[in-house]
């Protein structure tokens, strides 16, 4: 296998060579987030209960009558969790905000309320969960920010260089050849370190508004996460054997 990779590496230096990455890209596509539509500032909607157009507490509760409003599926996740729309987030503060919001809309608090508020409670709870999971994960947070900018992830390997793709093939081979949990754990530790470094790169690219750099880094993260998933599967197979 290593001799085959060496052939690919040599061929990769030729001018017209394009490494065979279709299957790999199909494998990592599962990390793609659903499309996010950016939205313009809207006028305040009228409360469904008191019909007043007042500011909403925590973007969810009428400040006049206190009724829980219908879920706003277009709300910016950062606004919902009271964070600035930037890539760096403080995990502890994010978790604290998430828990506070979930306490506000917990279905148990609305068991004696109207059926509309009970439905709204479940809908808001689901959206808060989705927002938290998106912002808590660097790759998902990066893709969400990119989509808020109206940009999409590349559908091919144009954002990657050939050397990186060859390195990914080697890493996949190392996973295939690993024979025990210790070897897999060592490979996973390397991936964790590389993912942390890419997270730092994302911070720099977002601060510089370098969206091409953001796209390339996110694609690299997808490849690493795909290999990490293969490691977990291999670990589970070793446990079952």
UniProtKB/TrEMBL annotation:
GO terms for molecular function: ATPase activator activity; protein-folding chaperone binding. SUPFAM superfamilies: Chaperone J-domain, HSC20 (HSCB), C-terminal oligomerisation domain. GO terms for cellular component: mitochondrion. One of its GO terms (biological process) is [2Fe-2S] cluster assembly. InterPro entries: DnaJ_domain, HscB, HscB_C_sf, HscB_oligo_C, J_dom_sf. Residues 161-208 form a coiled coil. The keyword Lipid biosynthesis does not apply. CDD domains: DnaJ. Residues 76-148 form the J domain. Belongs to the HscB family. This is J domain-containing protein. It comes from Drosophila ananassae. The gene is Dana\GF24163.
């Amino acid at each position: 296998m290593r001799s085959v990779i060496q052939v690919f590496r040599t061929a990769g230096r030729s001018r017209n060579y394009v490494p065979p990455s279709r299957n790999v890209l199909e494998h990592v596509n599962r990390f793609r987030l659903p499309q996010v539509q950016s939205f313009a500032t809207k006028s305040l909607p009228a409360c469904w209960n008191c019909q007043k157009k007042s500011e909403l507490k925590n973007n969810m509760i009428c400040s006049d009558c206190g009724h829980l409003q219908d879920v706003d599926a277009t709300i910016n996740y950062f606004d919902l969790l009271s964070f600035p729309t930037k890539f760096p987030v403080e995990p502890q503060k994010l978790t604290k905000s998430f828990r506070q919001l979930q306490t506000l809309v917990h279905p148990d608090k609305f068991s004696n309320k109207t059926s509309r508020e009970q439905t709204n409670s479940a809908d808001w709870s689901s959206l808060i969960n989705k927002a938290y999971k998106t912002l808590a994960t660097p790759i998902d947070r990066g893709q969400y920010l990119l989509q808020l900018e109206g940009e999409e992830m590349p559908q091919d390997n144009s954002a990657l260089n050939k050397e990186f793709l060859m390195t990914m093939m080697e890493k996949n081979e190392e996973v295939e050849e690993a024979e025990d949990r210790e070897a897999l754990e060592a490979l996973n530790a390397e991936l964790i370190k590389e993912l942390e470094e890419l997270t730092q790169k994302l911070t720099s690219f977002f601060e510089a508004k370098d969206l091409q750099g953001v796209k390339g880094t996110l694609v690299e993260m997808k490849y690493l996460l795909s290999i990490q998933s293969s490691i977990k599967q291999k670990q589970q197979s070793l446990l079952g054997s």
